[in-house]
Design goal:
CATH architecture: Beta Barrel
CATH class: Mainly Beta
Largest sheet: 12 strands, antiparallel, barrel
Shape: globular
Oligomer: single chain
Distance between the termini: 12 Å
Order of helices and strands: EEEEEEEEEEEEEEEEE
Radius of gyration: 18 Å
């Protein structure tokens, strides 16, 4: 079943936070492609100004188009573009493009171990504004470098750890992301659970100094958990549902996120 391989590299977007990591530990295979249409909703009930809760709330809706293609058996390319809406702010957000290369693989114990490197960038497509809590993003261009270690047991269980560095256009602070994901692949079903973390270097806080504030300068940290459940209907079609919750952070909204989507593999 090829199309489950794309589910856990879907981007669950929010205005500040990418969760589940931007890449995964699985490969499409040479000449294989996948297209995904995802929809989602974030129902945030609180906002961390710096690290202090403020009681501010927000509802965010999104639609995301995602595509992945196997250039070779060890090289994948992926693309995503979300459309987002929060209050009266609606626009295309940031387009992302990633390359992922498997540098090492071996049989180890009761499964397979592989190491991968990835690089990519994201850049604003829409002309969304910054300067309020209903912003759709920080209008930053980001260059990402990632390393992944992935182990897949013969029973179907897997674990993936990824981290790297995000270079961001000034004045947005650069950051380090970390994502740990565990799950299981079956003939028709796939599920996972993940923990996602980001640490930003410096930046300012909401309601801090200086004033007036440039929202592009906010330092964004977060701790987030979530999971995905996917079912394949046949060799071409499948569907997924996802759930996430932002536990704590800096200059981020706290609350649950819900997603669903359809997956097509030619």
């Amino acid at each position: 079943m090829k199309n489950y391989l794309v589910v856990f590299c879907l981007l669950f977007f929010s205005a500040e936070v990418y969760s589940q990591g931007k890449i995964d530990g699985f490969y499409r295979g040479k000449g294989n492609a996948t297209a995904v249409l995802g929809l989602g909703f974030e129902d945030s009930k609180d906002y961390f100004a710096g690290t202090d809760k403020t009681g501010l709330s927000r509802s965010l809706y999104y639609a995301n188009i995602y595509g992945a293609y196997g250039i070779t058996s060890d090289l994948d390319v992926s693309f995503s573009l979300p459309y987002m809406s929060s209050n009266k702010n609606s626009d295309l957000q940031d387009m992302s493009l990633f390359l992922k290369y498997r540098v090492y693989k071996t049989e180890l114990g009761n499964g397979k171990l592989q190491l991968s490197l990835a690089a990519g960038f994201s850049t604003p497509i829409g002309n969304y504004t910054t300067g309020g809590l209903n912003d759709l993003g920080q209008q930053a261009t980001i260059i990402d470098g990632r390393a992944l270690i992935h182990y897949h047991w013969h029973t179907g269980w897997f674990a993936t750890l990824q981290s790297g560095y995000s270079f961001k256009s000034k004045p947005t602070p650069e950051s380090i992301p970390v994502t740990l994901k565990v799950g299981k692949t079956l003939s028709k079903w796939y599920y996972d659970f993940y923990y996602d973390y980001q640490h930003s270097f410096g930046g300012i806080d909401y309601r801090g100094t200086p004033a007036p504030q440039d929202f592009k300068e906010f330092g964004v940290d977060y701790h987030k958990i979530g999971g995905t459940l996917y079912r394949s209907f046949n060799s071409n079609w499948g569907a997924y549902v996802s759930l996430s919750y932002l536990l704590a952070g800096r200059n981020v909204f706290q609350g649950p996120g819900y997603g669903l989507g359809i997956v097509y593999t030619p």
